[in-house]
Amino acid sequence: MTKWLAVISTALVVSQGAIAGPEDFHSDGLIKGYGRFADVPAAKPLPADTRFKVAMDVVDGGVTGEVNSIFKIAAGFLNLQHANGISPENVDIALVVHGDAHRDLLNNAAYGGVNPNAELLEILQEYNVQVLYCGQNAVMRNVAAKDLLPGVEMTHSATTTHVLLQQQGYSLRP
User: Fold this and answer.
1) 3-state SS, residue 47
2) What is the pTM of this model?
3) Residue 18 exposed, middle or buried by CB count within 10 Å (0-12, 13-18, 19+)
4) What are phi and psi of 19, to 5 degrees?
5) Closest by Cα among 33, 69, 71, 57 to 149
6) Which of 35, 37, 42 is nearest to 121 (CA)?
7) Long-range contacts: 48-51, Cβ < 8 Å, 24+?
8) Which residues sit opposite 37 in a β-bridge?
9) How far apart are CA 79 and CA 31, in angstroms?
10) CB-based burial of residue 140 (10 Å sphere; 0-12 exposed, 13-18 middle, 19+ buried)?
11) What confidence tens digit (pLDDT) does each residue in 97-119 have?
12) What is the distance between the alpha carbons of residues 158 and 56, in angstroms, rounded to a whole number?
């Protein structure tokens, strides 16, 4: 009996087109080339006036020559909401950067070459994404404000920043 229920359930899912694969993800949207997402036609539509306030913790990264995966997730979140009828003005994203990810915020001189994150961070900031760098991390790693990409804001600490963002109604996406 259990075996037949599994077969019937799978058949229903397949017939509804819910099974997808990597080829179904794309980055067509506001930020082309970054932020892949898949269309989900069966999902309940969001009201057009939906408002999002999301804080993304960015601790991993700093890999030479690679764009930080959380920065791409931020682009994908904007692309996804736009594709579902939510205006970018209704999406507030704060990237709270600390740990090894500090390197992804450095200008080319401090990075030691072309920082592959610079282009995406500039685009994200055009959509009012805040890029907030932990001052405690900066002190520990001897990073000065002059070493940072344009638009990066130094804060007291990542923890303080997360607390303040939560008080402002941001949800944490770790």
Assistant:
1) coil
2) 0.87
3) exposed
4) -90, 130
5) 71
6) 35
7) 48/85, 48/86, 48/87, 49/90, 50/81, 50/86, 50/90, 51/90, 51/91, 51/92
8) 26
9) 7
10) exposed
11) 999 999 999 999 999 999 999 99
12) 11
The structure tokens listed for 116 are 């592959």
| Structure-token match 């997402």, residue found | 37
Residue 113 corresponds to which tokens in the numbers above?
């070459």
Question: Tens digit of pLDDT for each residue in 20-36?
Answer: 688 889 888 899 999 89
Residue at token pair 């991993």: 60
| Sequence-ordered strand ranges (E) for the chain | 25-26, 37-38, 52-58, 91-97, 130-134, 152-155, 171-173
The pairs formed by 9-17 with CB atoms below 8 angstroms and a separation of 24 or more are 16/42, 17/41, 17/42
